[in-house]
Design goal:
The complex is a heterodimer of chains A (about 110) and B (about 110). Helix content of chain A is about 0%, strand content about 45%. Helices cover about 0% and strands about 55% of the residues of chain B. With about 110 residues, chain B is mainly beta. Classes of the chains: A mainly beta (about 110), B mainly beta (about 110). Chains A and B meet through β3 and β4 of A and β4, β5, β9 and β10 of B.
Chain lengths: ~110, ~110
């Protein structure tokens, strides 16, 4: 799996958009960008994933640069319940294990 | 709704005893399940891959005789921590990979060994 680089921590005001960056300069052509989050003392939760096109679902948007070397997860209106550690993971698809890095600890501030 | 369940959610045991943790797939048949461990303020570390009907595959450094995995059916995998010691205290999480390229994780089991 390609290595990813994320900021260790970020703060975001409640109600504002949270933009979480991820660098994955060694990504291969068949590797997807996945985002998971882990709220304290819970199992990780899948958020979104994409290959090269931007993606949006009910939780978030994923913006992938044209060269696919970086991406941004956007939570459009952050709430206190979005406080969590967010993991950006790059891997090929299929029934494969997920390798977690350190992630970004997002703190949403009232 | 939940796709993966774990039981128990938390357990406290005495040093030297064995503890069994169950991971259940609620809506899907899972030929493969993954077991992770997470120490406080650390990231998740993959321990092993559980395969239905065959032996589990363990990651480097994980003792297979200490962490027994049984994937007896398409909906159940169990992790048994044998002769638990305080250093085994951790948060244990299972996951199930999906055809849709995602993985669903269980809620986790917090083990405290006294």
């Amino acid at each position: 799996d390609a290595k990813t680089t994320q900021p260790t921590s970020m703060d975001c005001a409640e109600g504002r958009a949270a933009n979480l960056p991820c660098n994955h300069s060694t990504i291969s052509g068949n590797e997807y960008v996945y985002w998971y989050r882990q709220i304290h003392s819970q199992g990780p939760q899948y958020i979104i994933h994409g290959l090269k096109n931007n993606e949006t679902n009910e939780m978030a948007s994923l913006i992938i640069t044209e060269d696919r070397k970086s991406s941004t997860l956007i939570l459009p209106h952050a709430t206190l319940r979005d406080t969590a550690v967010y993991y950006c993971i790059v891997r090929a698809g299929g029934y494969q294990k997920v390798t977690f890095g350190i992630g970004t600890k997002l703190q949403v501030i009232p | 709704g939940a796709v993966v369940s774990q039981h128990p959610s938390r357990v406290i045991c005495k040093s030297g005893t064995s503890v069994k943790i169950e991971c259940r797939s609620l809506d899907f048949q899972a030929t493969t399940m993954f077991w992770y461990r997470q120490f406080p303020k650390k990231s998740l570390m993959l321990m092993a891959t559980s395969n239905e009907g065959s032996k589990a595959t363990y990651e480097q450094g994980v003792e297979k005789d200490k962490f027994l995995i049984n994937h007896a059916s398409l909906t159940l995998s169990t992790l048994t921590v044998t002769s638990a010691h305080p250093e085994d205290s951790s948060f244990y999480i299972c996951s199930i990979p999906m055809v849709s390229e995602t993985q669903y994780f269980g809620p986790g089991t917090r083990l405290l060994v006294l």
